[in-house]
Amino acid sequence: MFKQLDLLTSIKLNTFNLCFYAALLPMMGILSDIIGKNKLILFSCFMMLFFSYPLYFLLNNAENIITLEILLLINVSLVATLNASLPAFLCELFPNTVRATSMAIGFGISISIAGGMAPLACLYLPLLTNNINSPAIYIMIFTVIPIYFLFTHLNNPKRFKYLPSNPQKA
After folding, report:
1. Roughly what angle, to the nearest 10 degrees, separates helices 65-93 and 99-129?
2. Is 162 among the domain residues?
3. What average pLDDT is seen over the chain?
4. What is the DSSP letter of 33?
5. CA–CA dist 132, 55 (Å, integer)
6. Is residue 88 over pLDDT 90?
7. Does residue 156 surpass a pLDDT of 70?
8. Domain residues for 46?
9. Could you give the CA distance from residue 106 to residue 90 in angstroms, rounded to a whole number?
10. Residue 159 belongs to a domain
11. Domain annotation covers residue 2
């Protein structure tokens, strides 16, 4: 059911992909400054939504190491596209009086839930569903949330009406 790579090959692939990711982040940050953070986040979320399952299917059916690496690079590119513009986007979400607390709580909880459960989902979803590509559904679920947020709440001018603009006067 599960394909196995030897340890050395896995480490080489992972190291190369992490280096590619690190090199891609500044380029995607520049791209987000050019076309806009919201557009880049939406683009990457839609790409992850529509291509996660096909990408998992192709990864699990890759016949050689070159095909596997190309598919992994595509996945890393999607993640880098999202992660390059996310910190600046989150900073702009909150007024500066509550920015650090809001980001720490909101980002920390969401990463703990989504990221903390990811290894469990990747391990048990294929066993429960008897479908090796089922972790892609986990990714797809967590890309629908920011898409919904960006389309419904982001352009609402009253979104911070309840926050004090100057905490000393409040």
Report:
1. 150
2. no
3. 86
4. H
5. 12
6. no
7. no
8. 7-152
9. 10
10. no
11. no
The secondary structure of residue 133, as a DSSP letter, is T
Chain CA centroid to CA 103, Å: 16
Contact 55, 2 (CB under 8 A): no
112: helix, strand or coil:
helix
Please tell me the number of Cα atoms within 13 Å of 11 on its side-chain side: 3
Nearest to 56 by CA among 18, 8, 3: 3
Q: What tokens appear for 149 in the block?
A: 């947020």
pLDDT for 162 beyond 60: no
The total number of structural domains in the chain stands at 1
Does residue 1 lie within any of the structural domains?
Answer: no
Separation between Cα atoms, residue 17 and residue 19, nearest integer Å: 5
CATH number at residue 78: 1.20.1250.20
Mapped onto helix, strand or coil, the DSSP state of residue 131 is coil
